[in-house]
Amino acid sequence: MIMKLLPIGFGNFVSPDHVISIVSPDSAPIKRLVQEARDGGKLIDASFGRSTKAVIIADSGNVILSALTPEALSSRVSGETEERKV
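User: That's the sequence. What structure does it adopt?
Assistant: Structure tokens below.
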């Protein structure tokens, strides 16, 4: 069985089978979710110091920050090609 991985930028990958949601980080509820994950040790910052453009919520309860947009990540999940925007 071949496991597909979702590239989330800067050589980092996540398993799309464990992704519940990919959302924009702009709303207050998502900002609270990120802060709660940070406080609880469940935050993975894969943005490499760049501004966070997408928040990935995993079924494990982990919250992953990415510098790629939700649209770019979505197109990568669906297999579409997209120019690199980082």
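The longest strand covers residues 19-23.
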